[in-house]
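Predict structure. Chain length: 246.
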Amino acid sequence: MNLVDRINKHGGNLSNTEKYCLDNIINNESMVKVTIQQLADSLNVSTTTIFRMVKKLEYKSFNDFKDDLLLNKTLTLENSLIPDEDDEIINNLSRQYLQTLQLMKSVDFDPIVKNIKESKNVLICAMGMTHYIARVLEIKIKLNGINSRHFSDPWFMKLEANSMGEGDMLIILSKTGETKEIIEVANIAKLNKCKILFIGEVGKSTIKEMSDYFIPVANTENIGLDLDTRLQIHVATNYLMKKIYK
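Prediction complete.
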């Protein structure tokens, strides 16, 4: 059930204060970037009020609510900006690209960029199709004078993660965030007090929950021989590097 359906079903159960909070959150784009405490301070309400609103809409957590809000905003953007053309391929690519750009608007890139620039070592982990994007990202980070290594083999990933510690950073590129081998690497990095950045599709995932930072991209599907080339992850890494270049 999406955000609109939840509001239609449960909106009548919200108190006036909870409705005030929901209206402000939906109509203010910057609200998707803030924590529950920052949101409460901005609206002059308690965090309990916001949490109660989220529960009445049948979300498990405030972050689940924010994820659904982000997805709703990208779909709204999609309907308003995609031209009415006959070329279905162009329409689909444009739709996904615009969704990714809109999702990245919710991200505070400043702490991510700061941590990458100040890291002693940056380990980039990716497997399958995403491996090629990780290789390009490794080169770009190195060109900025930052020590960076990339592995697609799980054994080398774990070996490198074991040698890392506080002051190092792990960047994970993964479509779903559910790859078993990379989850194991993330666990090692977390135990060693490394910062973790995950770049992957919007929604729930194990690696997202483990990460300090998350850059979401649009969801794509593999249909028959039309294999997803991870273009949206490539868009996100390019955007991140332009932030680092500044």
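Summary: The beta strands are 122-125, 148-151, 169-173, 195-201, 213-217.
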